[in-house]
Amino acid sequence: MTSTDQQAFLSVRDLKVHFSTEDGIVKAVDGLTFDLEKGKTLGIVGESGSGKSVTNLTILGLHDRHRTAIDGEILLDGKELITARESELEKLRGNKMAMIFQDALASLSPYHTIGKQIGETYRKHTGASKQEARARAIEMLKRVGIPQPDMRVDDYPHQFSGGMRQRAMIAMALVCDPELLIADEPTTALDVTVQAQIMDLLKDLQQEFGTAIVFITHDLGVIADIADDVLVMYGGRCVERGTKQEVLRTPRHPYTLGLMNSMPTLDGPVDVPLSPIPGSPPSLLNPPSGCRFHPRCSFAEKVAGGLCSTEQPALEVVGGRGSACHLTPEQRQEFFADFAVSRHN
């Protein structure tokens, strides 16, 4: 995770996304900062409602401007996106940046063939003819591993399996060779075999095109497979970030630790029970005071002065490694020791 704007292809600075509702203001994203370089994958992980998808829909400009208050800065290859006109964003979407959605069946039109839907994006951004767009659609279906692409190009979404529909969505997202690809839990509804195939496909395509990828998931196992850097979100805020190795091997935030303790491992002791995080994610309409994780944190009472419930911890970043927690390094080393022992012995 780069620390300099000059190197960052995608740069997000102090992003706030608040929605106006009948019940009040929902602080879906509340001060998020990160960078992403070309050819790298940033994994954003967190429970449902943590702000992952909202962040990436905001990058694409897919929000109701009349009901959404957005503050901060989003730079894509030096171009500011928050203040960009809709016409400018339309030129970028599908062309310079694209998104793979979680539910391919819901995202694809049941009334049009797969080839037409892939080709439509290509024609819009390149001015290609129908014949050229069809040829490009066949080429992309072949590239993502669809058998007999010259025949399947005329099939409808319901004629594809779940894994093939997801491959078709990837083909559609990549048809214009975007430089930024946002994948919103694209493997959640797939079985593990197909999931592994999709992950390998994304890595191969990234190597071929040098694409920057933002990969959204709640699954740390997926993060371990595909990400270079990891950003952990909770309650609309970043609570920890760093390289994959740093975050997964030596977590610094109790929430990250909780996520990892909830995940089974293949190489650890078989008699170590899983420890789910107690309670539920916070309301973004009325978030808790202080650290938003403190009502669920087993270490909050160990911090002197009750800081966890009264003062929001800042995200302290050194060399790209950061965490937002009131625990001292000494306390963290002591309290997290059992995790290291159970996971790596």
TrEMBL record:
GO biological process: peptide transport
Domain of life according to the entry: Bacteria
Compartments, record wording: Cell membrane
Alphabetized GO MF terms: ATP binding; ATP hydrolysis activity
Gene Ontology CC: plasma membrane
Main localisation: membrane
Keywords in alphabetical order: ATP-binding, Cell membrane, Membrane, Nucleotide-binding, Transport
One Pfam family, short name: ABC_tran
Domain ABC transporter, residue spans: 12-260
Transmembrane residue ranges: none
Membrane-related topology note: Peripheral membrane protein
Sequence similarity: Belongs to the ABC transporter superfamily.
Protein name: Peptide ABC transporter ATPase
Organism, scientific name: Streptomyces resistomycificus
